[in-house]
Amino acid sequence: MATKIRLARGGSNKRPFYAIVVCDSRMPRDGRFLEKIGTYNPLVAKDSEERVKMDAERVQFWLDRGAQPTDRIVRFLEAAGLRAKTERNNPNKGQPGKKAVERAKERAAKAESAE
What we know:
This protein is an alpha+beta fold. Helix content is 31%, strand content 27%. It is built from three helices and five strands. A five-stranded mixed beta sheet has the order 4-3-2-1-5.
C-alpha cells in the first residue's frame, strides 16, 4: 500500500483547519486515513507554536515505513528539523510581470528621449 502524509481539510467556510494525516494515496483528500499525526491552523500567526503541531515520533515512524510527504508537509518537516532542507528552484519567482516590464521600457524610453 502506497502511503502519504498529507493535509485533510476541516473547519467551516473561510475558516480552514487541517489535520496532518497518514493515508493510502488512493483515498480522497478528506476521506479515510490510517492515523492523525498532527494539526495545522493557517489562521494563526506564522511564528506561533500553535500553527503546526506534529507528533515527531509518529512522523518518523511513518517516514521509515516509506510514507511519502506532500510538498507542504515537507516544508513543515524542514521547519521542525525532521528533514534536511532542500534547495527549491522557481525561476519565475524573481522576475517582474508583464506590466512591470512594459512600464520599465516606457521609463527608459522617456529618459532616453529627455536626454
